[in-house]
Specification:
Layout (H helix, E strand, L loop, with lengths): L2 H52 L9 H7 L6 H8 L4 E2 L8 E6 L5 E7 L2 E8 L17
Antiparallel strand pairs: 1-2, 2-3, 3-4
Helix pairs in contact: 1-3
């Protein structure tokens, strides 16, 4: 989990060094251009996700059951926000670990997600009891 914080900068430096050894300064310019383009792609995706989320109420989702089916351990908070198109309602005090976010749908079902270090650790779907207002149907053969 913490390897990404180390491997990405080391990988960038390695690409620049190899580019310099193989193609001199032209290779460095090409490698740095690719690194900047990669960073811009990630930044624009993050901005697109956050723009979509800003246009919806906090903590809402179209279907909590479908969200529950799509979730996988280890996905990032940004990925979950992209799936729901909504920021989650924070359930824990700000800047405490682990973080709990909740998304609720129109039927009052909700998914509570636990994130540790920005990665999804666990989640739970809770559905309200179904009250149809009708008495239970009699079993066949009952008088």
């Amino acid at each position: 989990m913490q390897f990404q914080k180390i491997l990405v900068p080391v990988g960038v430096v390695a690409v620049v060094v190899v580019a310099f050894r193989e193609y001199s300064w032209a290779g460095v310019a090409l490698a740095l251009g690719l690194v900047v383009m990669w960073g811009l792609l990630h930044f624009s995706r993050m901005m697109q996700v956050m723009t979509r989320a800003a246009n919806r109420p906090i903590g809402t989702v179209a279907s909590a059951v479908m969200l529950n089916a799509k979730l996988r351990p280890g996905v990032t908070l940004l990925h979950v926000v992209a799936m729901t198109k909504s920021l989650g309602a924070l359930q824990t005090p700000k800047d405490t670990q682990p973080e709990l976010y909740r998304w609720t749908d129109a039927s009052a079902s909700f998914v509570t997600c636990t994130f540790a270090g920005g990665k999804l650790v666990e989640w739970q779907l809770l559905r309200p009891p179904q009250d149809d207002g009708e008495p239970p149907a009699a079993a066949p053969g009952a008088a």
